[in-house]
Amino acid sequence: MTQDRIGRLSYELINCAVIVAHPDDECWCTGTLAAQVDAGLDVHLAVVCNGNMGGMPERSPAERAAVREKEVRSAAQIIGCELALMGVGDDEMMERYTSDYSRLEQEVREVIRCVDPHLLIVPHPQPKSRQPWPPIAPGLVCLRSLRKSPVNQ
Predict the structure, then answer these.
(1) What count of other Cβ atoms lies within 10 Å of the Cβ of residue 149?
(2) pLDDT band at 153 (very low <50, low <70, confident <90, very high)
(3) What is the C-alpha to C-alpha distance for residues 86 and 80, in angstroms, rounded to an integer?
(4) Per-residue pLDDT tens for 16-40?
(5) Taking the model in full, what pTM does it have?
(6) 104 with 142: CB under 8 angstroms?
(7) How far apart are the C-alpha atoms of 18 and 10, rounded to whole Å?
(8) Cα(59)–Cα(150) distance, integer angstroms
(9) Could you tell me if 73 and 80 are in contact, meaning their C-beta atoms sit under 8 angstroms apart?
(10) Among 106, 115, 119, 142, which Cα is nearest to 20's?
(11) How many CB atoms within 10 Å of residue 127?
(12) Which of 73, 76, 87, 106 is the most buried (most CB within 10 A)?
């Protein structure tokens, strides 16, 4: 932390974490991620779900998950960021979110703890989706996790 000549504090950002629901949800911030990488930050992308229910109706859930994983790995490589796949099936996410929430929150908190980000980017937690488990849920889980972190106790 440094202070400029008129007393404003500034912080040196070292790393950044992005937590999204599905493979391809990183698309809403790829420019920001690439800019952070170009600025020298270590950028970490965590994807909660495996994408096994998204698109490609002619394929099985396992095939969809494999395709989506390959796509998100390629995206992370192009952006230049580290990737963590949490591997929760889209088809099991709603159950986890409603009946096993504390486990989900613990897993998200563990990602945050491991990266210890100076900057955390998540989807806005304002629901505007008709999906049963919308892409904004990681934002809600992260906010709730941070409220329970030792820093805020």
Answers:
(1) 11
(2) very low
(3) 19
(4) 999 988 898 888 889 999 999 999 9
(5) 0.80
(6) no
(7) 22
(8) 44
(9) no
(10) 142
(11) 13
(12) 76
Instruction: Judge residue 77's burial from the number of C-beta atoms within 10 Å of its C-beta, 0-12 exposed, 13-18 middle, 19 or more buried.
Output: exposed
* Type of residue found at 146: L
Does residue 5 register a pLDDT over 80? no
Phi, psi of 67 (to 5 degrees): -65, -45
Q: Give 96-151 pLDDT, tens digit per residue.
A: 777 777 888 888 888 888 998 988 888 766 655 555 555 556 666 776 766 665 54
Query: Which residues, at least 6 apart from 42, have a Cβ–Cβ distance to it below 8 Å?
Result: 14, 15, 16, 82
Could you read off the pLDDT of 47-93 as tens digits, one per residue? 999 999 888 899 999 999 999 999 999 999 999 999 999 998 988 87
Q: At what angle do helices 101-115 and 90-99 cross, to 10 degrees?
A: 100
How far, in Å, are 6, 75, 81, 119, 120 from residue 32 at the CA level?
29, 13, 12, 12, 12
Question: Max Cα separation, the chain?
Answer: 62
Please state whether beta strands 82-88 and 42-49 pair in parallel, antiparallel, or not at all (unpaired): parallel
